[in-house]
Design goal:
CATH topology of the largest domain in chain A: Rossmann fold
CATH class of chain B: Alpha Beta
Radius of gyration of chain B: 17 Å
CATH topology of chain B: Rossmann fold
Bound molecules: thiamine diphosphate, iron/sulfur cluster
Structural class of chain A: alpha/beta
Low-confidence stretches of chain B: none
Helix content of chain B: 40-55%
CATH class of the largest domain in chain A: Alpha Beta
Strand content of chain A: 15-25%
Number of helices of chain B: 11
Oligomer: heterodimer
Mean pLDDT of chain B: 96
Number of strands of chain B: 9
CATH superfamily of the largest domain in chain A: Thiamin diphosphate (ThDP)-binding fold, Pyr/PP domains
Distance between the termini of chain B: 46 Å
Distance between the termini of chain A: 51 Å
Strand order of the largest sheet of chain A: 3-2-4-5-7-6-13
CATH architecture of chain B: 3-Layer(aba) Sandwich
CATH architecture of the largest domain in chain A: 3-Layer(aba) Sandwich
Strand order of the largest sheet of chain B: 2-1-3-4-8-7-9
Order of helices and strands of chain B: HEHEHEHHEEEHHEHEHHEH
Structural class of chain B: alpha/beta
Largest interface: A-B, 39 and 36 residues
Chain lengths: 353, 250
């Protein structure tokens, strides 16, 4: 176990390598360039493949080929590039090809800005491309979690044969923090469904999302929904900090959860009963715990760098049983600790009204 | 007695959905025969396009991936990078390869990606009902060029083989036709050679096969073959545009 200082993006890249990822396909875009640049240096050292594709469209289709052939494959991009990948992501979900996709999100819409943003939440958690499908979406809150979650992401992608997304942002990607790197893992996972050449098999393996014959498509969708149910039942992850005695709970992930934690620490030092609920999986969403807390009479404040996307899931989970307030920052700016502190204080003073 | 002709092992016994007289079936057979001849059925991985050949994975008895429209060369790249010893081929129509998938084919060729591409040029979008393709001939009527392709408004057909042959990446590019038995035999040889190039690790190979679409051309299968010979070949001359010899000389 080594302890080193690393940028979030590089920690994620090294974490992927140590989790056995040997195939990276990507296209340059700020603020995620540290990932492909790290991979370009590192992959040759571990006999892996780094390939700069001609576009994000090609990169995600290379992932489809590599993942479908049984390789641990990773691509990373930032918001405009992730939009371009959506066609491929829908095919990956439909054909049930495991892979990991990283979005180091920046502000939009359109070309947007280079600063951090959480305005790709809907795109990440509600599908993004066409059809009824879901990605497993992890939202790391520290550089250490970049390392831990990328490893988990590959395991879960293969366990469920489902694409997994890591939703990061410009701050999470650029920030330097100490991380403990795990040992290098040998991945010898046997993927009996992968296209490897049919040697030793009577029937060819086919990677495919087409369902035009008879009731094929309905069958495919039923199978997908059964899988998603299993994921919802087993894969929810969140961090709860000081929620037991809290009257008000802040819900935030990634960068804003860090800002919120600082504000909450100040408030708790003053004796205020406040807590933090940080979703680690954005999909499946930690709905049961929120629902429980709502039933206990807690109230919520959602802090986001968007005009309000995560807040919709919180409102759905709470389902009118509790009050949900929202504090958002538009693309391009990050809420300060003082702003969040003031917001919570104001809400506490207003009381439950 | 030695068996000299039979059903290719690399084809399944499934009945194809191709229209009567369509040359997709002939090209499937040629690809399967090449796979049999080279003894590579167990290490071959195909990529099906979006187009009439979308169900190719039902007809070839080899591992397959079905790609999004035009993306087959990128999918092939991903597969080949994971299994460098596999024989990887994409099978693509002209809408798939020369319109929506131009970036993918050009860059796979430029990289010299060690894959084989079987490119079916039938001058129309077959599957969607006969719309204009990037390969539709000047003056040719299709459902979206009902007055004939007007080159002053929609430009000229793309000669894919010539265009890709300007790149340094490809090792072998040939245009063939399947309008009569003599040319079918030649086409089979080209396809086999393309696979041999890949097996020898020489890089990107592509065989453009001039084909017919009797259904959307509104012609009988025989008339369609005549049209191929008389109208397509003058615009799309047959021949080798990039050869192993040329590569060897470099
Ligand atoms: C993204 C996308 N756009 C359009 C289509 C519709 N579509 C299906 S097949 C096809 C054209 C196929 O023509 P071609 O590649 O020439 O093959 P052919 O059918 O003639 O063999 C199109 C446009 C699609 N499936 N996906
Ligand atoms: S529509 Fe044309 S290309 Fe498609 S199967 Fe029929 S004849 Fe062949």
């Amino acid at each position: 176990m080594e302890r080193v200082m690393m940028k979030g993006n590089e920690a994620l890249a090294e974490g992927a390598i140590r989790a056995g990822c040997r195939f990276f396909f990507g296209y340059p875009i700020t603020p995620q360039n540290e990932i492909p640049e790290y991979m370009a240096r590192r992959m040759p050292e571990v006999n892996g493949v780094f390939l700069q594709a001609e576009s994000e469209v090609s990169a995600i289709n290379m992932i489809y080929g590599a993942g479908g052939a049984g390789g641990r494959a990773l691509t990373s991009s930032s918001s405009p590039g992730i939009s371009l990948k959506q066609e491929g992501i829908s095919y990956l979900a439909g054909a049930q090809v495991p892979c990991v996709i990283v979005n180091v999100a920046r502000g939009g819409p359109g070309l947007g800005g280079l600063g951090p943003s959480q305005s790709d939440y809907f795109q990440a958690t509600k599908g993004g491309g066409h059809g009824d499908y879901h990605l497993i979406v992890y939202a790391p809150g520290t550089a250490q979690e970049m390392v831990d979650l990328i490893g988990l992401a590959f395991d879960k992608a293969e366990e469920y044969r489902n694409p997994v997304m890591i939703l990061s942002d410009a701050i999470m990607g650029q920030m330097m923090e100490p991380v403990v790197l795990p040992e290098m893992r040998e991945v010898t996972a046997d993927q009996p469904w992968a296209t490897t050449g049919k040697k030793g098999r009577a029937k060819p393996n086919v990677i495919n999302s087409l369902g035009i014959v008879g009731e094929d498509l309905e069958r495919i969708n039923i199978e997908l929904q059964e899988k998603y149910k299993k994921i919802v039942d087993n894969e929810i992850r969140y961090e709860a900090d000081g929620i037991d005695d809290a009257d008000l709970i802040v819900v935030a992930y990634g960068t804003t959860s860090r800002v919120a934690r600082s504000a909450l620490n100040m408030l708790r030092a003053e004796g205020k009963k406040v807590g933090l609920l940080r979703p680690i999986t954005l999909w499946p969403f930690p709905k049961p715990i929120l629902s429980e807390l709502a039933a206990e009479g807690k109230r919520f404040l959602v802090v986001e760098m968007s005009v309000g996307q995560l807040v919709e899931d919180v409102i759905l989970a709470v389902n009118d049983r509790a009050k949900v307030d929202f504090f958002g920052k538009l693309n391009g700016s990050v809420p300060t600790v003082r702003e969040v502190y003031n917001e919570i204080n104001a809400l506490l003073q207003k009381g439950g009204a | 007695m030695q068996k000299v002709f039979g059903y290719p092992r690399a084809l399944t016994s499934k009945r194809t959905h191709y229209c009567p007289g369509c040359t997709h079936g002939i090209v499937h057979r040629l690809v399967a025969e090449a796979i049999d001849d080279l003894g590579i059925q167990e290490q071959t991985i195909g990529i099906a396009p979006v187009g009439c050949a979308v169900l190719a994975y039902e007809y070839f008895d080899v591992d397959f991936q079905e790609a999004a429209h035009g993306r087959a060369p990128a999918v092939a790249t991903g597969i080949k990078r994971v299994h460098p010893d596999a024989v990887v081929f994409s099978y693509q129509g002209d809408g798939d390869l020369a319109s929506i998938g131009t970036a993918e084919i050009v860059h796979a060729a430029a990289r010299g990606e060690n894959i084989t591409v079987i490119f079916i040029n039938n001058t129309v979008y077959g599957m969607t009902g006969g719309q204009m393709a990037p390969t539709t001939l000047p003056g040719q009527k299709t459902t979206t060029s009902p007055y004939g392709r007007d080159t002053t408004k929609v430009g000229f057909p793309i000669r894919v083989s010539e265009m890709l042959a300007t790149l340094d990446g490809p090792s072998y590019i040939e245009r063939v036709s399947v309008h009569d038995p003599k040319h079918i035999i030649k086409a089979g040889r080209a396809i086999r050679k393309a696979f041999e190039m890949q097996i020898a690790g020489k890089g990107f190979s592509l065989v453009e096969v001039l084909s017919t679409c009797p259904t959307n051309w509104g012609l009988t299968p025989i008339k369609a073959l005549e049209r191929l010979k008389e109208q397509m070949i003058p615009y799309y001359p047959l021949g080798v545009f990039r050869s192993p010899e040329e590569v060897a000389e470099e």
